[in-house]
Amino acid sequence: MGIGNIFHAFQPKDKIFFVLFEKVTENLVAMSEDFNNGIKDFDLNDDTMLKRMSDYEHKNDELTHEIFVELGKNFITPFDREDIHTLATGLDDIADYIYASTKYIFLYKSPEMKAYSDFSLLIHKACLEIQNAMKNLKGFKNMDQVKEACIKVNSIENIADDLLSNSMVDLFETNDAINIIKVSSVLNYLEIVTDKAEDVANTIENIMIKYA
Fold first, then answer.
1. How far is CA 5 from CA 9, 10, 12, 18, 66, in A?
2. Under CATH, which architecture does the 3-211 domain have?
3. What is the pLDDT of residues 167-190, one digit of tens each?
4. pLDDT exceeding 90 applies to what percent of the chain?
């Protein structure tokens, strides 16, 4: 066995989880950035954006599966196994609902609304804060930054709640029943993304309380 392999054999096995979570958050940040940019210049006749979101969603599925495989292989984990599972599932939900939002915009041929771009920007900001929280959670050394990032995610979710309410009011004033059904469905999917981001922030805060 080479010296590199010997060194690797004695490395803490729990480090793999932080590596994988960092890959997941990197994927979510890239996905949400592409989503935000794509919404700004949206074309219902061009499904390039939908395909990109599908690719990101599949990559997230693969990383989530990898986390679960490592969870089954490793006895030593950086925090509770249940928390690892909850965190991985929550992060995967964010990717699932970003993709679902994109898919239903295309399926419904949903007309463009300013609220879509407002939501997409909030989603991107939430993913950036989650990435920041996960980076600082490593080693449990920068808990102030973790807490601040989680608070920002919670604030973003509150803004998204208000955005949904105000957008629905404007939507119903159009008196276009078919349009209301289409757009309201998309708006709800977009708002759920921020709900899932808040769920992840809450999971991170629970981990921080237990182990910091």
1. 6, 9, 13, 21, 21
2. Up-down Bundle (1.20)
3. 999 999 988 898 899 999 999 999
4. 72
